[in-house]
Amino acid sequence: MESLDDVIDAMIADRVIHRHRRKWLIGIALVVVLALVVLATGGWKEKVGRTVPTLTAPATVESGKWEYNFTKAEIRVRKKSEYRDAEAELRVYFDLKNIDSEEQTSDSLQGKLLVFVPGGGQDYVDSNGADCRGELNWVIVYGLPPESCYTTFKVPADFTSDLVEIGVQGERYESDNGLLGADEDPYWHNERPDAVVQLKPAVVDVTEEDDK
Amino acid sequence: MKLYRPATILVGVLFVLLGGLTRLATPEQVFEEQNLEVVHGTIGEALKYGDSTVTITRMKFAKGVLEESGSDDDKPIETNGVYVALEWDTVRGIQKPSNTGAKLVADGGTVYEPIGGLTDSGIDFPEAGFAKTGAVVFEVNPTDLKGLTLQLRPSMFYNVLNSYVEVDLGIPSEDIAQQLVDGAEAQYVLQNPVVRVASS
Fold first, then answer.
1. ipTM more than 0.90?
2. Chain A nearest-CA residue for B83
3. B118 found inside a domain
4. Which superkingdom is the protein from (chain B) (predicted)?
């Protein structure tokens, strides 16, 4: 059974809500508008741009367990032939040295450690790994002098550029968090950007002869 | 409610004692790692790998590598270091051996992995009842060769008892390493692996 007090309380509450409803609505609308304005202007996070150094080739970069010495870049263009569409690829030449003093283990370069940065908000293009001594994914031995290698990026057939930017990502020798039950031994992973290298690419026409 | 009755405490003490007693029992075999039985050996010795066997038959040093299966105009792959080719012979038992991650370890702490790009380089096992010969090629640093040891370590998904083979390649000192490097052939021709019926 509802008492008189309860009824009176409910009536007063009703009045109060009604009296201040407009203010409430305006308040909520203001918050929504503020959120939209913040979103439209690019969010809370301050845009800082590039935080890694930008180098110009020839440049030496030590990143994770690899030491690169970037020398030159080529845009290799294959003209359209009767049975083949036009193709282009971006090839970047560098000397690669294994400086993995943590594990001293020979390894081949992973493709995701070198990325082509097309700019203009486009997605990065992963490389295909290092091609040394004529073999893709050649295993580089710790302690031996640098090998001269190149890596290839897929680009559209009509690709042209005066200056290409290659991002170098370096892995870190660290362990996973043991709290979740993972092994706490450190290993090479968690690659992070370390540098950007700018190279002036030369345009090279590729013919059938070069394939051999 | 009384939580710590004498009977409860007695049961607790009993469990602690039981746990201690099991640790006192001596195990039949002691392993260096709890789930790996290490098999040590030298070149020419047939070493147990599960119920299969592995024998390293020969070690060769070379300055270049060429594949037998390659085309005629292939050039040998050169190196800044030196190549070590290990010729092996495996006899497969009934159980399928787990994959072998072959690697070389030197006293200086360098770990060498097999070179990439050669399709026939690697250690593997044929079907049950067969034996196989082949070779695996490593590129190594000539200044870190002392105590070179081949390790065959199974890659395990489950934590089961496995064996782990270690082959001493017989390079006890820097001088011997230097002699082997000086005596390296100009090129090593990597033969195609051969499978034959295992003679028991």
1. no
2. A141
3. yes
4. Bacteria
Q: Judge if A65 and A36 occupy the same domain.
A: no
Interface of A with B in 86-125 (CB under 8 A): 103-108
> pLDDT for B160-170, tens place per residue?
667 788 899 88
Cα–Cα distance for residue pair B20/B26, rounded to 1 Å: 12
Q: Are B165 and B151 in contact (CB under 8 A)?
A: yes
Domain co-membership, A12 together with A74: no
Inter-chain contact B141–A142, Cβ cutoff 8 Å?
yes
Chain A residues whose CB is inside 8 A of the B81 CB are: 141, 144
Q: Does A128 touch chain B (CB under 8 A)?
A: no
Q: Which domain holds residue A166?
A: 54-211
B141:A108 CB<8 A: no
d(CA A111, CA A130): 7
What number of other Cβ atoms are within 10 A of residue A209's Cβ?
6
Tell me the C-alpha distance between B195 and B173, whole Å.
36
Q: What is the pLDDT of residue A31?
A: 96
Do A26 and A100 belong to one domain?
Answer: no
